[in-house]
Amino acid sequence: MANADAPPKMKRKEYEKELHKLQVELCHLQEWVKTQKLKVIILFEGRDAAGKGGTIKALTEKVSPRVFRVCALPTPSDRQKSQLFLQRYVEQFPAGGEIVIFDRSWYNRAGVEYVMGFCSPEQHKRFLELCPQVEKFAVDGGIILIKLWLEVGMEEQELRFQARIEDPLRQWKLSPMDTESFGRWYDYSRARDMMFKATDTKHAPWRLIRSNDKRRARLNVISHILTTIPYKKIKRDKVELPKRSQKGRYNDQSSLRGMKFVEECY
């Protein structure tokens, strides 16, 4: 049910103005992470159609993929299924100077795997017991761990699913697993609450973002990240382009005659 106290959805012009300000700060954060060799993990979790993908895009579209690295792991291979559950995630952990963004993470075991029966109740219970210990090991090792849950309402989720069904540009986002999860709203709610109870710890707390308004959610996420990772603006030397050398001048356009260019349709 919609929240009667929620503000009206943000207009595009206001959103783009605020997003630009935050993205400038992300560039400053990026330089600080690089110079200080920080190691950061940001987890994005939430129901299907909660807005994770759009938020990650807003977060990363103006920064370097060599610093902000997005990790969206596919279904595990047979070999990976035989490994320790967390092994393939730990392989993606950051080195100094990196921010790794998990578009879904090891918390799959507490959500989709548990609800859909892809793991046993014993495996689920064991994960909830061990996960806080593994996260403490990571944090004690110098990793800044930010865990974000995008909370979308039932009605808004249905609207987004319907939009995906009707829009050919978004139909690829709708998998059979997504449609199956749609009918299991309350199973996912119970799984979510069990996960929070077991893994919302002092060393690795969860932070929830209401995401019925995608634009506000994106801004709130970026703002939270900027306040969670202490950083300073690094003064950069002003760049001046050198004069182009005229030595050995060469007609570099005539040499392209006869080459096949793409047809200019626009």
UniProtKB/TrEMBL annotation:
Keywords: ATP synthesis, Kinase, Transferase. Residues 10-236 form the Polyphosphate kinase-2-related domain. The keyword Kinase applies. It catalyses: [phosphate](n) + ATP = [phosphate](n+1) + ADP. It is an enzyme of class 2 (transferase). One of its GO terms (molecular function) is polyphosphate kinase activity. Uses inorganic polyphosphate (polyP) as a donor to convert GDP to GTP or ADP to ATP. PANTHER family: ADP-POLYPHOSPHATE PHOSPHOTRANSFERASE, POLYPHOSPHATE:AMP PHOSPHOTRANSFERASE-RELATED. This is ADP/GDP-polyphosphate phosphotransferase. It comes from Bradyrhizobium icense.
